[in-house]
Fold this protein.
Amino acid sequence: MKKVKLPLLYSVALVVVAFVSPGTMAANLADAYAHAVQNDPVLGGAKAQFQARQQLIPQARAGLLPSITTGGTSSWNDREFPDHIPNTVSGVGTLKVPGEEFNEHGWQASVQQPVVNLTNWFTYRSARSSVDAAEASLEAVDQNLIVRVIQAYLNVLRAQDLLEATIAEEAAVKRQLEQVQQRFDVGLVAITDVLEAQAAYDNAVVRRVQAAGDHDIFFETLATLTGEPYESVDRLSITLPIVDPEPSNEEEWVTTALATNLAIIAAKAQLRAAERTVAARRSGHLPTITAGINHNHLATGGRSFLSGKTDQTTYQVGISLPIYQGGFTHSLTKEAVALAEQARQELQNQRLTVTRDTRNLFRSVATDVVRVSARLKAIASITSALEATQTGYEVGTRNIVDVLQAQQRLYSSQFDYADSRYNYVLDLMFLKQTTGTLIPEDLQELNQFMDPTDSVHRVTSLSQRSLDLGSQ
């Protein structure tokens, strides 16, 4: 496609809009994604949440592993006896027993190992499934970041195209106003033509000012996502191929989506976790068996019939069978069953939603391909129509309103063409995201079509003021 030649005022305005600080380098799509991976708080929070969820596994595994406890005591004793106690040896008279001060200390250690505990076993398996679901959710956040970066980046380019269209329209309408004013001054047209042209010019100025404001807003949105205040970004090359999705079979996309969509994968894992929780709750009615070893050591400095030190080791096997707990276990089981059914319904909802979205996005991409081609042809048709309308105005068969409307349609069609290309890219990325196949390499491939020789520069307050003064 050949680029439309712009009026001189339009070219000058673009130079003013391109005012940026010296030395500023334009960023491309890959740069924006790399910065977003480092700085996006949504992704950072998701990573932290996943790290927290990962701890469910060691916490649940602890119920299957041995527990070891140890402790000790140390005490000082001051023992006193009565002044005289009966002489139990000779049976005659009394004896005087001196008091004593001594230290007594000891320690104990215990090892307990669950032998049979199905509740803890199913809880552990449920925790593993919950972590699987969390991992799929984190991958979904990763994929969503790719889409968010592309969308924010293309919104900047979209805002630039709209700004250029409004600047070009303003320049064209201003030139038309000047010509109409000259024709009115020599009595060739009525004052109504001047008023119509003036109103059209005022509206064009409003649209240009609004577009410039939106331009800065979208730059700021991109900066919020990436953490970098870009002053310029590369534009999307006209060489970007606009082709139908591959494979071209809608059912193949749906089949892939049902197998690899991350929301479905996460929902499946959540269902497994819920079913294993049900098994854990039902196991609360079953017996548990525990084996253990206990050792106690006591050393005393006082007089003792068993000498100063004693050690005792105990080996034990215990079985516990819950008979009745007030209905608590039964209630927990009913709760788990209901939550498992909820997880099952959520999985079904995800499948239906993904199927619908995949079909809609596949058709949207196919429609975008046709729309881009049609809008490109529309530019040529509308350009010819504008030329004919201007000629008709010169000979008196068309009025100024017809000319102004034809001009507006031309610039609107130019923006619509650019807008349809951005929609094609986004719909294609959304389609891949829905099927779970979107990867950073897709963004890198798109980045190859960013043109470093054609950059979009942020509209600063100084450049906006220059534009406003130039329009007066």
